[in-house]
Amino acid sequence: MNTVGHLKKAQVVECNQMLMRLLPVLARGMIQEVEHPICGPVKLINTPVKYSHSTPGIRSAPPTLGQHTDEILTDMVGMSVDEIARLRSEGVIS
Description:
The strands form two sheets. A two-stranded antiparallel sheet has the order 1-2. The chain is α+β, with helices and mostly antiparallel strands. The radius of gyration is 20 Å and the shape is elongated. The protein has two domains: about 1-60, no CATH class; about 65-94, no CATH class. The mean pLDDT is about 80. It has helices spanning about 15-20, 25, 70-75, 80-90, and strands at about 5, 5-10, 30-35, 40-45.
């Protein structure tokens, strides 16, 4: 692998924990801690893109499993509350 000074041009990242320890990630301030309503403080990787007139970033903690199920099934799929209740009672969704 080619190197530039002591830095590698490309590096395999195996998991978020590994990514969070990389010097370029830390130097760019890409790690942001947010409060999760169930898990408490969670470290997340912020967007790698930096703009001069915009500040994209993390807007909220990641959802829990199934947190938006009802909203998606009613608003996007068009299911009724009764249909969703049936799916839940049959164990299709939780």
